[in-house]
Design a protein that fits this description.
With about 45 residues, this protein is of the alpha+beta class. The chain has 1 helix and 2 strands, in the order ββα.
Protein backbone atom coordinates (compact mmCIF):
# COMPACT_ATOMS: atom_id res chain seq x y z
CA UNK A 1 0.00 0.00 0.00
CA UNK A 2 1.27 3.48 -0.85
CA UNK A 3 1.56 6.18 1.79
CA UNK A 4 -1.14 8.84 1.71
CA UNK A 5 1.37 11.47 0.59
CA UNK A 6 5.02 11.75 -0.29
CA UNK A 7 7.43 13.58 1.92
CA UNK A 8 10.23 15.83 0.62
CA UNK A 9 13.03 13.61 -0.61
CA UNK A 10 10.81 10.55 -1.18
CA UNK A 11 11.01 8.73 -4.51
CA UNK A 12 7.88 9.01 -6.61
CA UNK A 13 6.06 5.74 -7.31
CA UNK A 14 6.58 4.46 -10.84
CA UNK A 15 3.73 5.24 -13.22
CA UNK A 16 2.87 5.68 -16.91
CA UNK A 17 0.53 8.26 -18.44
CA UNK A 18 -0.37 9.35 -21.97
CA UNK A 19 1.39 12.43 -23.33
CA UNK A 20 -0.25 15.14 -25.43
CA UNK A 21 -0.19 12.86 -28.50
CA UNK A 22 -1.63 9.88 -26.65
CA UNK A 23 1.69 7.97 -26.49
CA UNK A 24 2.39 6.34 -23.13
CA UNK A 25 5.28 7.86 -21.18
CA UNK A 26 6.62 6.10 -18.10
CA UNK A 27 8.60 7.59 -15.27
CA UNK A 28 10.99 4.61 -15.34
CA UNK A 29 11.83 5.13 -19.04
CA UNK A 30 12.28 8.88 -18.58
CA UNK A 31 14.64 8.36 -15.64
CA UNK A 32 16.89 6.21 -17.85
CA UNK A 33 17.67 9.29 -19.98
CA UNK A 34 17.61 12.31 -17.67
CA UNK A 35 16.39 13.79 -14.41
CA UNK A 36 12.64 14.27 -14.10
CA UNK A 37 10.67 17.12 -12.55
CA UNK A 38 7.01 16.34 -11.91
CA UNK A 39 4.58 19.23 -12.18
CA UNK A 40 0.90 18.76 -11.47
CA UNK A 41 -1.33 21.22 -13.28
CA UNK A 42 -4.88 21.43 -11.99
CA UNK A 43 -7.27 22.65 -14.64
CA UNK A 44 -7.82 22.53 -18.36
CA UNK A 45 -5.45 23.37 -21.20
Amino acid sequence: MLPSKLQPGDDAPLFALPDGKGDMVSLADSLKHTHVVLVFYRGYW
